Amino acid sequence: MASVIGFVQRIWDISRPIETPKSADAVRIGLLGASTTAPLSLITPAKSHPGVVIAAVAARDFKKAEAFAQKHNIAKIHRSYQNLIDDPSIDVIYNPLPNGLHFEWAMQALRAGKHVLLEKPSVSNAAEADTLFSFHAELRSPRPVLLEAFHYRFHPSWSGFLSFITASTIESARSWMSVPAGVLSSNDIRFQYDLAGGALMDPGTYLVSILRQVFGAEPEECLSAVATPMPQGRDQKIDQVMKASWRFPNGGIGSIEANLARSTWLGMPGLDLPSVVVKHKEVPVTDEVGSDKSQSHGMIHTVALYNWALPAIWHRIDIVDEHVTRDDEGKVLKRWTLKKTKKYYTWDELQEEGKTRVGSKSWTTYRHQLEQFINRIKGQRGSGVWVDEDDSIKQMEMIDGAYKKAGLPIRPTSTYG
Ligand SMILES: NC(=O)C1=CN([C@@H]2O[C@H](COP(=O)(O)OP(=O)(O)OC[C@H]3O[C@@H](n4cnc5c(N)ncnc54)[C@H](OP(=O)(O)O)[C@@H]3O)[C@@H](O)[C@H]2O)C=CC1
Ligand SMILES: O=C1OC[C@@H](O)[C@H](O)[C@H]1O
What we know:
Keywords: Oxidoreductase
Family: Belongs to the Gfo/Idh/MocA family.
Radius of gyration: 23 Å
GO molecular function: D-xylose 1-dehydrogenase (NADP+) activity; nucleotide binding
Bound molecules: NADPH dihydro-nicotinamide-adenine-dinucleotide phosphate, ligand LJPVP2WV
Largest sheet: 9 strands, mixed
CATH superfamily of the largest domain: Dihydrodipicolinate Reductase, domain 2
InterPro entries: Gfo/Idh/MocA-like_OxRdtase_N (IPR000683), Gfo/Idh/MocA_domain (IPR050984), GFO_IDH_MocA-like_dom (IPR055170), NAD(P)-bd_dom_sf (IPR036291)
Protein name: D-xylose 1-dehydrogenase (NADP(+), D-xylono-1,5-lactone-forming)
Shape: globular
């Protein structure tokens, strides 16, 4: 009962954050597009941040921008993306445009000296990532801040999960995310190749990021990539589903399944919690059992995180240790399993020296991300979580590699120079 009350309370608190008065030096953010995601990923989180004002929005259609501004209490409307970027009263550009427009508008914003919060995937392919992030790296100090918005990494549940993983002994890691069938309309940006759509680009980009995080390394080889194309008559360059696997330097295998139209029995929409399961190789345990030289004691450590995408609403980390003792001929003497469950709604259990980790239970991944983004802009010490330039480039290299392996073209490079 207490857990149900906690769940309902968290949903209530997340959807109605306490609005804080804004400080005089608040960072002023402008939104590119009246996007579907902005209310969840930035507008609501900004309400509880005293140092952030959502100051302007630009949309291709003025009436749409007007309605969006009114609904979200945004004071200023621009008739074009360029006008927003050129607005001297704006400090930060939030870029949640279709993936295929990320590169152009991030470059434009950086060229205008604005900080950029850039939705994932950062761009369409590795060549664009290299150009964008190298351009950013070479900007003169004080450089604007550029962040690929891998929000899940900023929540304490992700750090808590990683704290149970020993990268060098991982045998396998599996991660998955899907969108239930029928949720996305047939003309959704995710189904358009020219806008850099596809399952690997959308849920898949998180899954690729998760494998890179878990192994703490880049893969040596893409072992398999199998795309389920869109139904006949639709764009065959779009992967509706992508299943792929990679071998990492420790010999472990990482695999993903990204699905833009998950269905189950009789075509009913399917709902899976976005999750990751990491299984380690058996490692020897030295303890009182192991000290008997005629016996050996081994353990397989498996860690799973359920709901890494919206962990503030609910998540669970399961840690399962399978123990086995064997005699000196390898015959199994005894097996037993120890299980525990952990949850990290706040940093309380994860405080480390030198890191400033703040937040409350009602902070979503997006709110935590915003905190760190603003810390960077203000030159303040934060939680230590960040996504750096090289990380974002390597991310796109892994995605390109999987598209090639699947026999699909990598997503098109922008003509913007
Ligand atoms: N962090 C997260 O949790 C989430 C991130 N995302 C990411 O955000 C981005 C946008 O996703 P989402 O908000 O769902 O997308 P939308 O379909 O809402 O598109 C976003 C905006 O793109 C603009 N746009 C510009 N050119 C085009 C075009 N040719 N066709 C369609 N739209 C265009 C529209 O702006 P205008 O108003 O000017 O017409 C639209 O408002 C993606 O990169 C996605 O991966 C998406 C969902 C969640
Ligand atoms: O968080 C998300 O969930 C669903 C996806 O389609 C979306 O783009 C992604 O960011």
